[in-house]
């Protein structure tokens, strides 16, 4: 009897894992369990430095050092990015709460296109910088948009989110971490 | 007219050229070195494809950055280290053996060991079962009788 039960049990366990991996792929994606996601080696490292022009006023520049002493969110987006449109309402909601500075990075985008999107759907950002050729944010390990980085008071990356911010990862992951980092 | 369109369609595969992603190469030696190195880098947005052949935007960027770094005199190792620093070891097609990747490298050998142990165990058990089947005197006598019978039957068959 064992001869039949054992292979069946093994099969059932394997099938269970496969099912878990494949079922509800969207849900998994939202929870950040994307199989394509890679762990960022930049977490707990100093945020790479850059000096980039602001989107609205290109003659002014922004460098991450200016926000030292504050916990802030760096959100990489683009006018050509589909998932950014899903993320946008969440960011609008967050900006209303005025919890922390949200710095937007208009990534590999034309200035006009980026500005047009923001003026049409609303601007959730404390300030927006433009990385037109994507070179500066290559250093942040950006390989898809949107991506978000949570940076602490000392300028160290504490969390990286590949994909859109949504109500779930905000309340379960980002918000508790922000509160914790702000209390430090 | 319909046949003309069909013939036109037949030309389509000619445009489906899948070659090395072309970039502006003003220095063929450097380009060859870059492509060779890029073959070892995984394209993160296309999966299972090296940066050297990928046409994705990200791969184009990586190649451009490799080219720039090489022009600036960086060694292959420095470029690889730079990529690993930003994207993690998973950008390498051939990840180094270290604490983090140890399970990955050790798993096949561990499985082989477990499999081998199970095989040995099963074989031992089977040998025990075979050894147990010893003939009693009674059985031996019965077997001799049966063999005799079939031998004489066979004789009859050949005589007939």
Strand order of the largest sheet of chain A: 5-4-3-6-7
Shape, per Cα inertia axes of chain B: elongated
**Overall tally of domains of chain B:** 2
How helix-rich are the residues of chain A, as a percent range?
40-55%
Poorly predicted regions of chain B are none
Mean pLDDT of chain B: 82
What CATH first level of the largest domain in chain B would be assigned?
Answer: Mainly Alpha
> Most extensive chain contact?
A-B, 15 and 15 residues
The name of the CATH architecture of the largest domain in chain A is 3-Layer(aba) Sandwich
CATH superfamily of the largest domain in chain A: Glutaredoxin
Total count of helical runs of at least 4 residues of chain B: 6
Give me the oligomer status: heterodimer
Q: What is the general shape of chain A?
A: elongated
Q: How would you summarize this macromolecular structure in one to three sentences?
A:
The complex is a heterodimer of chains A (184) and B (160). Chain A is of the alpha/beta class and 184 residues long. Chain A has six helices and seven strands; from the N terminus they run ααβββαβαβαββα.
